């Protein structure tokens, strides 16, 4: 058996080298391939130790939908922005509105999205969301034409740093007609 400090370092190297989120069971399997029979609670203790180690640094251990990963803390992201500033992949307002509707109202059809947005949904936006693996077809509505039902994926959650769809910020409450008029009079 290996001591907890060495186990922590081994798990740190796995997270650093993986380049993607790793599930606890995957860590256990990787350790097993090195003849280290470590139980899941010990792996979780080592992860907690890593979290404590990085508490005062720019790095953190983050649990997202697909597992655990090592990443730069959000407050240090601006320092890296010039390295990754790719202006060729700007995200449009229509793209963000579409993925937001899918995330909050899933599963939804293209028609549902168009009803909410009040405009037609570009085929390119849907294709782009599918290519990024942010959405997937989860089934088909039992309606004329059998429209596809879209929902978000674990990749979407990972890319937005979320563990589950329940971690999305709450939607603002809709204003009553009276409240909207009050705001117009004040403004």
TrEMBL record:
SUPFAM superfamilies in the cross-refs: Winged helix' DNA-binding domain
InterPro entries in alphabetical order: ScpB_csome_segregation (IPR005234), WH-like_DNA-bd_sf (IPR036388), WH_DNA-bd_sf (IPR036390)
UniProt entry keywords in alphabetical sequence: Cell cycle, Cell division, Chromosome partition, Cytoplasm
Hydrolase listed as a keyword: no
GO biological process: cell division; chromosome separation
Organism: SAR86 cluster bacterium SAR86E
NCBIfam families hit by this protein: SMC-Scp complex subunit ScpB
Oxidoreductase found in the keyword field: no
Protein name: Segregation and condensation protein B
Top-rank lineage group of the source organism: Bacteria
């Amino acid at each position: 058996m290996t001591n907890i400090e060495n186990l922590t370092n081994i798990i740190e190297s796995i997270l650093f080298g993986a380049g993607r989120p790793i599930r606890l069971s995957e860590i256990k399997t990787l350790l097993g391939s090195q003849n280290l029979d470590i139980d899941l609670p010990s792996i979780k203790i080592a992860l907690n130790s890593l979290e404590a180690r990085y508490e005062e640094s720019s790095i953190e251990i983050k649990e997202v939908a697909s597992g655990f990963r090592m990443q730069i803390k959000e407050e240090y992201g601006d320092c890296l922005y010039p390295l990754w500033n790719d202006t060729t992949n700007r995200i449009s307002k229509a793209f963000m509105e579409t993925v937001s509707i899918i995330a909050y109202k899933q599963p939804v059809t293209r028609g549902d999205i168009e009803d909410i947005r009040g405009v037609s949904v570009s085929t390119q936006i849907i294709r782009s969301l599918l290519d990024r693996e942010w959405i997937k077809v989860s089934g088909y509505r039992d309606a004329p034409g059998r429209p596809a039902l879209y929902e978000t994926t674990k990749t979407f959650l990972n890319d937005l740093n979320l563990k589950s769809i329940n971690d999305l910020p709450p939607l603002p409450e809709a204003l009553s007609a009276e409240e909207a008029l009050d705001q117009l009079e004040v403004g």
